[in-house]
Amino acid sequence: QLPTGLYKKVLVILHDSILPYMNEPTLMIDFLTVAYGIGGAISLLALNGLFILIHEHNLEYPDFYKKLYSLLDPSIYHVKYRGRFFHLADLFLSSSHLPAYLVAAFIKRLSRLALTAPPEALLMIIPFICNLFRRHPACKVLIHRPNGPEDMSEDPYIMEEEEPSKSRALESCLWEIQALQNHYHPDVAKTAAILNQALSEIEDDLSGLLELSAYELFDKEVKKKAADVPLEFEQIRGLFGKKNDIFGEHFALD
Predict the structure, then answer these.
(1) Which residue has the higher pLDDT, 20 or 245?
(2) Which range of residues forms the domain containing residue 221?
(3) Does residue 5 fall inside a structural domain?
(4) What is the pLDDT of residues 43-74, one digit of tens each?
(5) DSSP string, the chain
(6) Is residue 42 situated within a structural domain?
(7) What is the pTM of this model?
């Protein structure tokens, strides 16, 4: 048992400062699988090392996607390591061999959690979801279901279900993204409206969005040039706003 702080320090550097210099990186399998099962930030940080073992050393991890699915909780959009997590999640969900029910479960859970996410996270997660639709066209039924549920009470999707195959995500629709089209931040509303149109085949580049911060959004808004605001106006005197309006001779505006 390691202290939480030490766990984090080790896992942050494990994938690039330790594993490449080991003669047998597979010796870290037990350590990483235990760390992945702890939960919270430690599980997020363990993903980096696990990805290397799975990708380069043929590690087979049972119920890997079930565990990855369970990591999606409301804090995922607020944690310090958000960018790293979604970069790896994007890699894990890139395979075209994943079943539609699994990808649909990820899309629904990410969309539901997005209802309470900050704007900087939403500007990243909506393109992330769009990319999943591009890779897995079978999931587009979530968009093109006109008679789907309109609110949480009618939604067949089971948020509390830990098993993605039993979440009934494919029976649902993305009313959450439709709700985000009325978001207070104009950039979020504009980004969410993309799903109203046919998606292009080219995936969105997420590299510049993964580390987007609230400070950067605020700085962008501050630097915008405001449109000229008229300070005077001409009072309407006729029915159609003209001074010598023939209607003004016969009609009056009370």
Answers:
(1) 20
(2) 99-251
(3) no
(4) 888 888 888 888 788 888 777 888 889 889 88
(5) ---HHHHHHHHHHIIIIIGGG-S-GGGGHHHHHHHHHH-HHHHHHHHHHHHHHHHHH----TTHHHHHHHT-SGGGGTSTTHHHHHHHHHHHT--TTS-HHHHHHHHHHHHHHHTT--HHHHHHHHHHHHHHHHH-GGGGGGTS-TTS-SSGGG----TT-SSGGGS-GGGS--HHHHHHTT-SSHHHHHHHGGGGSPPPSSPPP-TTTTT--HHHHHHHHHTSPPPP-----PPP-STTS-TT-GGGGT----
(6) no
(7) 0.77
